[in-house]
Specification:
The complex is a heterodimer of chains A (249) and B (232). Chain A is of the alpha+beta class. Chain A has helices at 14-26, 60-67, 113-125, 155-172, 235-247; strands at residues 33-38, 45-50, 74-76, 79-81, 88-99, 103-104, 109-110, 132-135, 139-151, 178-183, 192-197, 205-206, 211-215, 218-221, 223-227, 232-233. In chain A, the strands form 5 sheets. In chain A, strands 4, 5, 8, 9, 15 and 16 form a 6-stranded mixed β-sheet that branches. In chain A, strands 2-1-3-12 form a 4-stranded antiparallel β-sheet. In chain A, strands 6-7 form a two-stranded antiparallel ribbon. Chain B contains 7 helices and no strands. Chain B has helices at residues 2-45, 50-82, 102-108, 110-122, 135-162, 171-211, 221-228. In chain B, helix 2 (50-82) crosses helix 3 (102-108) and helix 2 runs antiparallel to helix 4. The chains are: A alpha+beta (249), B mainly alpha (232). The A-B interface holds A 1-3, 6, 8-9, 13-16, 57-58, 63, 66-67, 69, 71, 110-111, 113, 116-117, 119-120, 124, 133, 135, 137, 140, 209, 211, 215-216, 218-221, 223-225 and B 194-195, 197-202, 204-206, 208-209, 211-215, 218-231.
Chain lengths: 249, 232
């Protein structure tokens, strides 16, 4: 039973929400966030790095992307990367992804209410309230902002991040299965498929406001139902909370 | 009546005197700016002192020329003078009748070459600037002083204009202020354009969310499930 008061996202517009999430993921140092988007015809892919991040407004490249009336999914890398997508730099958040199995009720595919409720309960019962929750229709992603980013330039940092992600996923019973990141060719060539675990910092997250995937016969808008910027945590706080949660009966 | 007129005349003289004082102060400040700018220019472009030339530049150039001579002429010289079987007389890399090159003197007698250059330099009169070691700090100090004078002068002109004195800013101040105003206009225009574009995107997103069959208050199926179970 959810007893915690639901925090409705502050009165941010669609664009302000996108800017807030990008700002949270990027921090203020060097590096870029990788955006991956379908082209307007839904066939090709565009991937580009976004370096200019402001927490209140969108840079020209992201504005242009949204203006292209891109009604397909746009995904963002949770980890900041070196310019030119040359390796991971740092991770400002921990995240838990909850994949929702669509069910067919005889006439159409839909998202089952009990699955959504179970996810909401698991997130609400975690000792550390999330900084943001992104509802992507077919998946819910909860994010926790770290006070100090994890350095991913060394093997030690990457292992630390993956371990923390795995602990969080275990505590919240979140998705861990491999996900395929497909990049179809717009010129008829082979589709490129990369596999990453659902909680891997090298993967991609749904970006706020972009239509994620078909649920039933309707395109579902990705929304941000929760955004509490003041929820910032030390990594140890989250891993300790995850350990406690995991051991609870 | 005459006393009122006299009072006005006195006031007029006082105001004129004040204006003259202000314009004189500004003129004085401008002259200081011109002189300080010249000092900065001298610090940047004047030649280094004789002592530095003698202690560092002359030995460097002599050794450089000597090394070049050895690298260029050495192999030819040793081949010509050290061949086991001479096909005639020794062959030097220069004609026996030609004058000795400066680089050869530098290589063979570097102290003499240094002494020659030193003697020449000592005879040349010129106005030196700061040494290489002191130059950066000197330039920085002078530029700081120049900036302070310019700021004071600009403020004084603003003050004078506010007091009704007819005086124009320096041309570079006018140009800078126009460029700043233009930059501000561009930023404001860009901000307004971005706001307009974001509002257009926001409107489309709101319409899309409205069309979504799974939309609940707050626009999220996740929230819909949470709110459905809230104790009311």
């Amino acid at each position: 039973m959810v007893t915690e008061a639901i925090t409705i996202a502050p009165a941010l517009s669609y664009c302000e929400s996108v800017a807030a999430i990008l700002s949270m993921l990027h921090g203020t140092d060097e590096g870029e966030l990788l955006l991956d988007a379908r082209t307007a015809d839904g066939i090709g892919h565009r991937a580009f790095g976004v370096q200019t991040i402001h927490h209140e407004w969108l840079s020209e490249d992201v504005l242009g992307l949204l203006e292209d009336q891109n009604s397909w999914h746009i995904r963002v890398s949770p980890a900041v990367r070196r310019t030119g997508n040359r390796g991971l730099l740092r991770l400002h958040v921990l995240f838990a992804r909850f994949h929702i199995e669509k069910v067919f009720d005889g006439t159409e595919w839909g998202l089952p209410a009990d699955q959504m409720l179970a996810i909401a309960n698991r997130i609400a019962l975690f000792p550390c309230p999330p900084t943001a929750v992104i509802d992507g229709g077919g998946e819910v992603v909860a994010l926790w902002r770290l006070d100090n980013p994890i350095d991913l330039t060394h093997e030690h940092g990457l292992k630390r991040a993956r371990r923390a992600q795995a602990d969080l996923a275990a505590a919240l019973d979140a998705s861990t299965q491999p996900m395929a990141h497909t990049t179809p060719s717009a010129t008829g060539g082979p589709t490129r498929v990369e596999n990453f675990d659902a909680h891997d910092p090298a993967g991609f997250l749904p970006l706020v406001g972009c239509l994620r995937e078909r649920v039933g016969n309707t395109l579902t808008a990705v929304t941000i139902p929760r955004l509490d910027p003041e929820h910032v945590y030390r990594l140890e706080e989250l891993t300790d909370a995850a350990t406690q949660q995991e051991h609870q009966p | 009546m005459s006393s009122v007129i006299d009072k006005f005349k006195t006031l007029a003289r006082t105001l004129t005197s004040a204006a003259t004082t202000m314009t004189d102060a500004i003129a004085q400040r401008r002259q200081q700016i011109v002189e300080k700018a010249k000092e900065v220019q001298h610090a940047r472009t004047d030649l280094i002192p004789v002592s530095e030339i003698i202690e560092t530049r002359i030995p460097e150039t002599v050794h450089e020329a000597g090394a070049y001579a050895i690298a260029d002429l050495g192999p030819i010289l040793i081949q010509g003078i050290g061949a086991p079987v001479l096909g005639g007389s020794v062959r030097l890399p220069w004609d026996p009748k030609s004058p000795l090159e400066w680089r050869v003197i530098c290589a063979a007698m570097p102290e003499t070459a240094i002494a020659i250059l030193t003697a020449l330099v000592r005879q040349i009169q010129y106005e030196p600037g700061p040494s290489s070691a002191e130059r950066p700090a000197t330039i920085e100090r002078l530029e700081r002083e120049l900036a302070a004078l310019e700021i004071e002068e600009e403020a004084a002109v603003d003050q004078a204009c506010a007091a009704g004195v007819q005086i124009a800013h320096r041309a570079e101040v006018i140009a800078r202020r126009q460029a700043e105003a233009r930059q501000r206009e561009l930023v404001e225009a860009a901000t307004a354009d971005r706001r307009r574009r974001q509002e257009a995107i926001d409107a489309k997103a709101a319409a899309r969310a409205e069309d979504n069959r799974h939309t609940a208050p707050g626009g999220s199926a996740y929230l819909a499930r949470e709110s459905a179970t809230r104790p009311h």
